[in-house]
Design brief:
Layout (H helix, E strand, L loop, with lengths): L8 E5 L4 H10 L5 E3 L11 H11 L3 E4 L6 H4 L3 H21 L3 E7 L21 H16 L3 E6 L2 E2 L6 H11 L2 E5 L3 E2 L2 E2 H18 L9 E3 L6 E2 H15 L6 E5 L21 H5 L7 H19 L1
Parallel strand pairs: 1-2, 1-3, 3-4, 4-5, 5-10, 6-9, 7-12
Antiparallel strand pairs: 8-11
Length: 308
Amino acid sequence: MVSYNLNKTVLVTGGSGQIGSELKLISQISGINFLFPSSDEFSLFVTLDIMDYCNRIKPDLIINLGAYTNVDNAEVEREKSSLINHHAVSQLGKYSFENNIGIIHFSTDYVFGNNKGPHKFNDIKSPINHYGLTKDLSENDLVKIHSNSLIIRLASVFSDKGRNFVKTMTNLILESKEINVVSDQKISLTYAGDVASLIVLLISSFFLNNSFNFIKSSFFHFTNSGYTDWFSVARFIQSEVNKSRSDNKSKLHAITSEEWDAKAIRPNDSRLVVDNNWLNSKGMIIPSWEDRVKKVVSSILVKRKMEF
């Protein structure tokens, strides 16, 4: 990794999540002064806490990874998810605007709802669950509040940390015999480690002229290459597990989204169109979802072997 040696302070909210955890791993060699406050130091629930903390540390750039990401629970804990995913973002945007600094906010493919994909960054949004709605509202507010902002939409983030489909499915395949997996939802996948690398690249580019004008729009889609569906991902994971566990007896059953018992409705097609031209010009080639799922499954298998 290239060291940029930037004499700047970058505040990262939500640093304990999947992307934040990966960013911490590379932060020591990035040459960037990252601050990863804990939830006790910096709460996204209280407006005064947000403003007070930012006023004390005076960051040069804010990376907002903080989010309420449990899609089903968001249908129940609507106020909590709205506070974190919408209102806190508005406050961070307000601080950034008033202090003339940049902000990078991470959003989701779920803002597009059931419109047919793959979705370009400027396609019409129509979220169909509360999680998607909170993210949609945060995008709208941030664009109105601050022109020097960048909104990055991700899809189905995964790693060997935290809670995510790839990690959950790998463990289920290792432990279960019969597994039902939805097969009729078209998706993109995003490896958290690649997002962390993207963040470092964006930060260095931003500080060259204190602007995001190197990106065509205030919106940027980022996923690993290739499209898929949940059942195909599960089948790929199973094949990777079977390479090292020949005695594995798990069986996958494809079901429809209507057969899956969930509080929140998921989009039928949430695939994102990614424009790799700028990334390629910076030497960042995005691996396929298969390549990254293979990497994560391998890491999980190694960790499980060490535990026993």
